[in-house]
Amino acid sequence: MADRMIVLGGGVIGLATAFELRQRGLEVAVLEIKSFGGQASGAAAGMLAPYSEIGEDPDDFFRLCLSSLRLFPKWQADVKKASGLEFEYTESGSLHCVYHEADLLSLSSRQGWQKEFGVEATILNQSATQKLEPELSGEVIGAIHYPEESHVYAPDYVKALEKACERSGVELYDHLEHIKLEEWESGIRLTSKSGQEFEADQLVISSGAWAKEYEDVFSLNFPIYPIRGQICAYQLVPERIKHILYSSQGYLVSKADGTLVNGASEDIAGFETTVTEKGINRLTNWNHHMLPFLQELKPFHQWAGLRPATQDGYPLIGRLQQANRVIFYPGHYRNGILLSAATAKAVADLAVRQLPFISLDRFEPERFS
Question: Where residue 1 falls among pLDDT bands split at 50, 70, 90?
């Protein structure tokens, strides 16, 4: 008989993993203390852009992100088919823009090492950049163009994952308020605040910024901290801006409904998710240097979410050595949407005790203990 699995955490990573586990024939239940996709997942801009985000080093984290980007065309189609729901998946490409001559050299260096991974990247001068996006500021002197980068509409993607889980037979439990791990050695047993019990053979923990709570349970060090990411959005005519736009200050990404998402300012505020004037001003103070017309507009929407960041910036992914029934994998920071496909497959490999399809050695969850 196949193992029964409990996924603790109903964000995008937890739901994606539950869906993949169910595809492997396992019995699966997802437990969530609040609402599904309610924290980092639902607040995300939904970008699938590892080439723009990771410009310094072709390390194992880049390889994990790259593998997930290349899994996404089939992955998102599978989620749509299983859920019966549509969500925006746009292969828009991106422009990582620069403002100074000295920055063009860094683009050349980035293009050089990324080429070894088969990344299609073209460095453009000012006129070529503005030909792709005519409304870019004249301050932008060039860009590197990544046609492979894309994005999803995160709230709809999370809803589709939830529905795909439900339709495939995953048990879904939300608004549990508090979950206590009662047993994890001879079996898995958890209880909710109301006293409801849940039992399984294995437990996978993806509780985001709340995963640090398990340090005392396992006598291990999990340095995971909530980082508040604040985002705002403008309403434009659909397709006025066609590419994901990056700079050293942040990003702008246009959705199919004309919403232009501008993010993200980050600060440390514990588990506080209120939006602050200072946080939004960090966005509005620079965005018109990318798109001048934004200086005349006001955001119609502002929001914030908590991103689970680890001490070294890498997620924790692996089976706990001293708790062999537990797979621990929080800490995806601002890459949860992108990494949902690859992490789901890697964790499912671990759950059925297969060698993961990609090396997870760099992400060993007990590395700080």
Answer: low
* CATH code for the domain defined by 89-148+225-310: 3.30.9.10
- 130 C-beta neighbours (distance < 10 Å), count: 17
pTM: 0.95
CB 218 within 8 Å of CB 316: no
Q: Extract the tokens encoding 347.
A: 């964790």
Residues 6+ apart with CB under 8 A from 353: none
Reading the block at residue 145, the tokens are: 């163009």
User: Rounded to whole angstroms, how far apart are CA atoms 43 and 209?
Assistant: 14
**What's 127's DSSP letter?**
H
Domain ranges across the chain? 4-76+154-224+312-363, 89-148+225-310
Q: Which H helix or E strand runs over 81?
A: helix 60-83
Model confidence at 39, pLDDT cuts 50, 70, 90, reads: low
Question: Among 44, 36, 364, which residue's Cα sits nearest to residue 53?
Answer: 44
Separation of alpha carbons 205 and 326, rounded Å:
7
With contact defined as beta carbons under 8 Å apart, do 278 and 254 qualify?
A: no
What DSSP letter does each residue of 140-209 carry, written as one string? --EEEEETT-EEE-HHHHHHHHHHHHHHHT-EEE-----EEEEE-SSSEEEEETT--EEEESEEEE--GG
Q: Which fold has domain 4-76+154-224+312-363?
A: FAD/NAD(P)-binding domain (3.50.50)
pLDDT in tens, 234-285: 999 999 999 999 999 999 999 999 999 999 899 998 999 999 999 999 999 9
Q: Is the Cβ–Cβ distance between 28 and 7 less than 8 Å?
A: yes
Query: What is residue 270's DSSP assignment?
Result: T
Between the alpha carbon of residue 124 and those of residues 43, 101, 104, 148, 268, the distances in Å are 32, 12, 10, 16, 36
**SS3 track for 168-183:** HCCEEECCCCCEEEEE
Whether the CB-CB separation of 141 and 124 falls below 8 Å is answered with no
The pair phi, psi for residue 172, each rounded to 5°, is -120, 125
